[in-house]
Amino acid sequence: MRFRLLAAVVAIALPAQHALVAQQKLTLAEAEKLALQHNPQISSAQFSAAAAHQTPKEFHAGLEPLLTGSLTGVGADTGSRIGAGNITNSVLYNRIGSGVAISQLVTDFGRTGNLIASANLRAQAQDQVTETARADVLMTTARAYFAVLRANAVLKVAQQTVAERGIVRDKVDALYKNELKSKLDASFASVRLAEAKLFLSQAESDVHAAEAALASAIGAPTQGGFQLAEEPLPAPLPDSAEPLIRQALQDRPELKDLRLEQSAAERFTRAEKALRYPTISAAGVTGIVPAGQAQVQPRYGAAGVNVSIPILDGGLYGARRTEAELKAKAAAERVAAQANLITRDVRTAYLNAATAGERVGLTEQLLAQAQLSLDLAQGRYDLGLSSIVELSEAQLSLTSAQISNAAARYEYQAQRLFVDYQVGALR
């Protein structure tokens, strides 16, 4: 009987082993590397971060000198003046002139400096968005990786179940033909075999679905199949969730992002408050007029200082300042809210991982008991001391225990990795 069982298992496994020849071999580290290289979510976040780092340069340009050159040629009704559209009536002359003008902000009492600081903080916050995207991609890839391992483990259980129930069905059919078992027994055995084949079909579908999810995660949606390496069990959890919560509140990129956004909002508030202060700037022009009317001097030049003092603005600056203050307070509240959510999520992930770890040992015990029960039921049935119903129930219990045991290891690995994600350790 054991030889027949082995032959049946080998016959079922051979096509699968042949298919593995063309499959891509991957470790979890290799899958994560591919995901970081090819997943568009990462590149999108990186481009957004690079764009955000240009904003401080845009504000900083306001502190640098502005130099412009001009070349002007005028054909005019000589001596005439502009009669409309301007308060000053400039005299018009034929001329050709060229020159340069330079302007330099002397001080705006910290407004531009605070705008630069705010933009730098927002750029750093965008860097944390990139880190969040990396962690999301790594977590998605790891989940898909362990889902494929789990689906393949369940597939092996399904293949073994079909082989074993096929042997039982053949044996019961032979006994029925020799009038040693009833038709009910033969019917029961056939039904259980049909159920096992349905289970096998679903397991094969689940493998394909899991592989499709992994292919999408690593940025290779057309990849057909994978041969994945087993991963060692992770380090045990600490005795409580408290150290993990402290680590999460320090390292989670989402929380860093919000804290930087809060600091940026506070610096922007300072910039808006500076609107009520004067702006002092210096300007100078110089140039030559190589051709023109005699009234136009061949050279010109001037320098001056301009002080712009806000007096009446219709309440605009006050409204902008208040708006910035309220947004800064809202940003602070978002930080507090996110910290509460992270504390909850870490505690939940810790409990789920601890439960998954316990299930690994429990399912091993369940599998041993289920195998013993099936052996006893098989022996009783062979001796005619029990019905096919008892044997079928023992087969179902063993199949269920095998599935639970096959899934428990990978579920624990996935849950343990999710704890690392929640504390911000996935990089």
Give a structural overview.
With 427 residues, the protein is an alpha+beta fold. The chain has a single domain, classed as Up-down Bundle (Outer membrane efflux proteins (OEP)). The protein is 67% helix and 12% strand. It has a four-stranded antiparallel β-sheet with strand order 2-3-5-6, with no helix packed on it. A two-stranded parallel ribbon has the order 1-4. The two termini are 52 Å apart. The model is unreliable at 1-21 (pLDDT under 50).
Layout: helices, strands, pairs:
Layout (H helix, E strand, L loop, with lengths): L1 H19 L3 E3 L1 H11 L1 H13 L2 H6 L5 E9 L20 E13 L3 H67 L5 H35 L8 E3 L13 H10 L1 H21 L5 E14 L6 E10 L7 H67 L5 H36 L4
Parallel strand pairs: 1-4
Antiparallel strand pairs: 2-3, 3-5, 5-6
Helix pairs in contact: 1-5, 2-5, 3-5, 5-6, 5-8, 5-10, 7-9, 8-9, 9-10
